[in-house]
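As a warm-up, study this chain.
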Amino acid sequence: MDRLDNTVRPYAWGSTTAIPQLLGVEPTGEPQAEMWMGAHPGAPSRTPRGTLAEVIEAGPERELGERAVAKFGPRLPFLLKILAAGAPLSLQVHPDLAQAKEGYEDEERRGIPVDAPHRNYKDANHKPELVCALTEFDGLCGFRDPDQAAGLLDGLGVDSLKPYVDLLHAHPQDAALREVLTAVLTADRAEMARTVAEATAACTRLGGAYAPYADIAHHYPGDPGVIAAMLLNHVRLQPGEALFLGAGIPHAYLNGLAVEIMANSDNVLRCGLTPKHVDVPELLRIVRFQPSDPGVLRPEASPDGEEVYETPIDEFRLSRYVLPEGGARHDLTRPTPQILLCTAGAVRAGEHELRAGQSVFVPAGETAEVTGSGTLFRATVVV
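Now compare it with the structure written out below.
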């Protein structure tokens, strides 16, 4: 197995302290948003044998195993991250596999450069993702019941929100949600900025259930995404709890430290809370306008101590081991590729001693014995 040297991405929304604190290093003063573990071409992990992308390209069946290559092709189908949100991320949604292929082929046919700021589809893959909290972690996930959303907006006492409140009481629910989101994102920007300013003042004054939206508005003053965010469920994860974000589910991460795993894709359609391109017609094609519970996941324990976060897709499988002092040795050998990530304590994986924030890549079939005391996340695939 190979120890990984991973890139930290300095996105503006990143915490300045959370990742340095996890790694036990001094903060630089700059935001440190995501640490990437995998073979994504944007920032592949480095190993003693070259980048992980180069290692896999040189011997895909040796590194990934025959069954994984047959199912997913000669590439690692997931990307593992440590995510540290110090400010809200953009409100966003991801396409399903058919939508991604269709959108990518359409933009290729129209000759839109892949790095163009108005390009929606960077690849032809879907991007389901799972986020597992390491600290308390706040996010938005899926639509509220429209009557609940109407009550939240109505409670602000902002006259210009009254038409949205009335629409949310209409039926069917999916049509009501679609109409309100469309109206918010296509409203006159100057008028919407005034509405958001009034809503922000009310959220700040009222606090309680409105506090998350006051904080969002502090970071994105005047952004229509502040109102769109109030249509969504607010959820606070405790350490060890997780959310699965499937296709078409609008979501945003607000603050906290987490482990995130996703299918290896860059396809994001934004709904707001961003200066970047928002393609409203394409967004409306992708979003699933059904109210839903956020569906907080807790891991299911197996007899050998592995705690698995069950999801309905095969590109990734995330689990963890909470290893007690003096506990038994665990054999994690699998016929599929793995990344092992330590997030607390000290864990020995093969010949490598891992401390918080350190990780290794384990080729398919490679012996992987683990001992020590700490928390170890295991990322692999389902074949």
